[in-house]
Amino acid sequence: MKLSPMLKQGISKTFLIILLLISVIGFADATYLTAKHYLGDSVTCSILKGCETVTGSKYSTVYGVPIALFGVFYYLFVSVLLFLYMEGVRGVLKFLVLSTTTGFFVTLGLIYIQAFILEAFCLFCLISALSSTALFVGVLYVLKLNKRSVKRLMPNAK
Amino acid sequence: MSNKEKTEARALRRKSRSIKKAAIWVAVLLGIAGLTFFLVSKSPEDNTPGTSTDTIPDVAADEWIKWNPNSPVTLIEYSDFQCPACGEYYKLLNAVKLEYGDKVRFVYRHYPLAQIHFNANAAAKASEAAGLQGKFWEMHDKIFETQELWSSMGASDAAAVFAGYARDILRIDADRYLADFDSESVQAKVTEDFAGGLRAGVNATPTFYLNGRQIRNPSDIVGFRSLLDEALADAEAGNQ
């Protein structure tokens, strides 16, 4: 039995394109933070902008590798998976769920560090937090619709 | 070709088309990444060095000068004790001192960003008050080394911490320190440094001036090396 064309009905293409766009935003944002890390000016304080506490803190790198760089690879990975999913490669869904769930929990950890340890937020880090959360919720939604359409087509399937 | 083979061939073609498309997609994303890096590298810096007309006050004899006071090369830092970035530069400058301490003159000037750092002015006053008893740099070091501790405190607690350093660690006359800490002349000294920097267009800390010209903050010791080596070579050439 061929499922895939019918499965598509469950999730609109627009929804997937929106998710893809969000992953591109996250990707560009993480790239910007990485570029700033390697090329940007050193950290300073100023009255207008406050201090670059977050991106200058010891929490911004893991063994010298900026967390933003992990973000770049994460969004690249998720974006390619989403792309393949849109192309009809349904098998990537479980990797999408796995990676966006991981991404979401990492985001929670980073937000915690900003809110309770550094007591400072950085705009571009918050953009990334929003996009990774949106991807997490969006992919879960895709998963849910997917399961529902499988049930509808094969009521006896578990 | 059997039907089955045809279907398989079609599936294979579709698969390779998908992979090709995905590869193009990756290329697009890498293009975005490349563009971002390019734009960041070309963007004007946040603290653009002042124009040549923005001159800072000359170094006076009663300022806080260390390393080699007779050097023709002068590095001036406008700094805020509560600024985390200045705390990082304190560590970096200690490393720079090991290499250039005998070749370069270093001057510390106060630039407390009091609007965002509520204890910065008190810290500056504490260093000046200790300085009146000859312990400016000792207080300066102690304040930077414990920056995280007193930064989050209320004003009176932070002042008590500084007074504790004066009494217990620097072992200077505590009563005199407290009187100086509250004196107008000590506040005036801090304000004077700040005003001089403000007139020259200092708007962030730390801001460094090398032989009177604002420099882009080096992000590591390698950056300091190239700037200082160049200034030292220029001074040498000027002497001959």
Keywords, separated by commas or semicolons:
heterodimer, A: 158 residues, de novo design (two linked rop proteins), 6 helices, B: alpha+beta, Glutaredoxin
Overview of the molecule:
The complex is a heterodimer of chains A (158) and B (240). Chain A has 158 residues and is mainly α. Chain A has helices at residues 4-10, 13-39, 53-56, 67-86, 93-118, 123-153, and strands at residues 45-46, 50-51, 61-62, 65-66. In chain A, the strands form 2 sheets. Chain A has a two-stranded antiparallel sheet. In chain A, helix 2 (13-39) packs antiparallel against helix 4 (67-86), helix 2 packs antiparallel against helix 6 (123-153) and helix 5 (93-118) runs antiparallel to helix 6 (123-153). The model of chain A has no long low-confidence stretch (mean pLDDT 84). With 240 residues, chain B is α+β, with helices and mostly antiparallel strands. Chain B has 2 domains: 1-43; 64-239, Glutaredoxin (3-Layer(aba) Sandwich), CATH 3.40.30.10. In chain B, strand 5 and strand 6 (213-215) form a beta hairpin. The longest helix of chain B is centred in the N-terminal third of the chain and has 40 residues, at 3-42. The interface between A and B is medium-sized, with 33 and 35 residues. Strand 1 (45-46) of chain A pairs antiparallel with strand 4 (204-205) of chain B, so a sheet runs across the interface.
